[in-house]
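Try this one yourself first.
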């Protein structure tokens, strides 16, 4: 007697494309050159000690000159008509430099939320055009730790306080999901107070936003708003994995370089077997993280029905790898890794903050378990 078998709905298998195209590599080269010129380690460290959330010249070059802000926006709405794969490449490079730039929050999450509304004209389409050009930035007014599965209204109406909104101090527009629907609210308008908070990650500012009878433009009703916010957070969580990959890759590369140059007992410390094993193990983790991050970006780009699962897998894995890589970077740099002058602490703080953004690794593991559950026999 044979055991009963589990059956699933049949559909043609789709092999994800994890490789980088030539266009993606060209985009990487342009973004990396810009960040090397405008966001090297001393510049980023200095920026964290200033009152300016980010460098407007850097943002203008990245968003408008390179065109990165409009990668997800169709050409007919003023964007580049690219995909999440190209946006993922930009985020990898931003992760490598931990540059203060509102790319993830404005050009991915807010943009994807507006795109989900499907408007080809009206205020949502007009705002998309402005975001694509880099002329303005927007943020989704939900706590940075909100997972895609936790999407929903944060306020009953345009009245109340929402805390922990990433990049809100630098945003021009807030996308506020309420019980009435999704509103666009100008941060400079009456009844809007943006109070900067002290974040762990000094390269990504957080704020508490208080609305007191604020005026806003209704973009969608409650049902459409919930769907749009969920899609925006899903794209944010999926592409955050690429930023975490960039963090891990920089930490590994910098650690290998340092241990080759640092000598003890007349030998490079990287030649000691114990350190070789630690860095080899970290290399394997980074390679696996690249596969998970690329799979999530490709699933989002192709509109795969498995995108939620791919995103959950990527976040469940990549957040831990980024933190581990940053911790190893600090430890294997010895005393200098703990100094304020060395950028290692910025990568550790970004990795720690990212590990909670758009849902913790634990919440994403629970999502994987739920989405991958096989039907009963």
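Now uncover the answer:
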């Amino acid at each position: 007697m044979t055991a009963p078998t589990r059956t699933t709905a049949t559909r043609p298998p789709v092999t994800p494309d994890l490789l980088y195209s030539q266009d993606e590599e060209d985009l990487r080269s342009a973004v990396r050159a810009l960040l090397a010129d405008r966001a090297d380690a001393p510049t980023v460290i200095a920026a964290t000690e200033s009152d300016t959330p980010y460098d407007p010249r850097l943002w203008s070059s990245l968003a408008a000159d390179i065109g990165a802000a409009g990668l997800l926006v169709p050409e007919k709405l003023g964007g580049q008509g690219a995909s999440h794969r190209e946006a993922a490449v930009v985020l990898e490079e931003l992760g490598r430099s931990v540059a203060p730039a509102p790319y993830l929050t404005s050009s991915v999450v807010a943009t994807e939320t507006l795109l989900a509304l499907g408007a080809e004209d009206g205020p949502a389409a007009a705002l998309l055009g402005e975001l694509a050009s880099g002329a303005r930035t927007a943020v989704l007014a939900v706590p940075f730790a909100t997972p895609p599965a936790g999407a929903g209204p944060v306020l009953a109406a345009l009245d109340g306080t929402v805390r922990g909104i990433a990049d809100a101090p630098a945003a021009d527009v807030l996308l506020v999901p309420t019980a009435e629907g999704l509103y666009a609210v100008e941060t400079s308008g009456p009844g809007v107070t943006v109070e900067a908070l002290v974040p762990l990650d000094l390269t990504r500012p957080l704020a508490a936003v208080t609305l007191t009878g604020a005026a806003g433009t209704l973009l969608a009703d409650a049902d459409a708003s919930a769907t749009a916010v969920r899609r925006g957070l899903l794209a944010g969580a999926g592409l955050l994995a690429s930023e975490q990959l960039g963090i891990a890759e920089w930490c590994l590369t910098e650690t290998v370089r340092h241990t080759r140059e640092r000598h003890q007992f007349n030998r490079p410390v990287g030649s000691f077997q114990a350190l070789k094993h630690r860095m080899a193990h970290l290399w394997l983790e980074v390679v696996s993280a690249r596969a998970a991050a690329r799979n999530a970006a490709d699933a989002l780009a192709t509109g795969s029905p498995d995108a939620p699962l791919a995103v959950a897998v990527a976040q469940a894995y990549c957040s831990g790898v980024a933190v581990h890589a940053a911790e190893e970077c600090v430890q294997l740099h010895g005393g200098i890794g703990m100094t304020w002058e060395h950028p290692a602490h910025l990568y550790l703080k970004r990795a720690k903050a990212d590990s909670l953004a758009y849902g913790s690794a634990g919440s994403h593991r629970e999502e994987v378990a739920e989405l991958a559950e096989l039907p009963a026999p």
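Discussion: The longest helix spans residues 222-261. Confidence is low (pLDDT under 50) at residues 1-10.
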